[in-house]
Design goal:
- With 146 residues, this protein is mainly α.
- It has helices spanning 24-56, 77-105, 110-127, 132-138; strands spanning 12-13, 20-21.
- A hairpin with a 6-residue loop joins strand 1 and strand 2 (20-21).
């Protein structure tokens, strides 16, 4: 029977039937896994924001020096398409992780909820930089747990 209210206890099913905890060791390892995935979510969101910033950067007004041997093979439309494809892949992976985190919280276990919230906070602390809050308002976001 699935819980429909928050409960505290070591017996929880997270996401799939085979991920059940029945001892304190398996429960604490599962909470650690949830915490690490939540922090990784923030890391990927940071990478996606940086990619978005790089792709939207305007060229500098200073004159460019011709260096054909040092130029990237990907310039012009090919580079824009590659960056857009990489951004789309990052967006999809980040959306999937975000929704899996949301579904894990829907196990209604208090420990899982706290582990994910703490993981998101730790990830935000370590992977987000000063001034990125303004950027995140502009950039599209797939999940509520950004």
């Amino acid at each position: 029977m699935m819980h429909m209210t928050f409960y505290w206890g070591k017996e929880v099913t997270i996401l799939i039937d085979s991920w059940k905890t029945d001892s304190w060791t398996s429960y604490l390892l599962s909470l650690l896994a949830c915490l690490l995935v939540a922090a990784f979510y923030q890391y990927l969101e940071n990478r996606r924001l940086r990619l978005k910033l790089i792709s939207s950067a305007k060229p500098s007004p200073t004159p460019q020096i011709e260096t054909p041997l040092l130029q990237s093979k990907f310039t012009g439309d090919g580079a824009k398409l590659g960056v857009k494809l990489a951004g789309a892949i990052l967006f999809g992976v980040n959306a999937a992780i975000g929704y899996l985190l949301m579904l894990a919280i829907m196990s209604f276990n208090g420990g899982v909820f706290l582990a994910i919230v703490v993981g998101l906070s730790i990830g935000y602390f370590f992977f987000r930089k000063e001034g990125e809050e303004d950027i995140s308002l502009i950039v599209d976001n797939s999940c509520a747990c950004a």
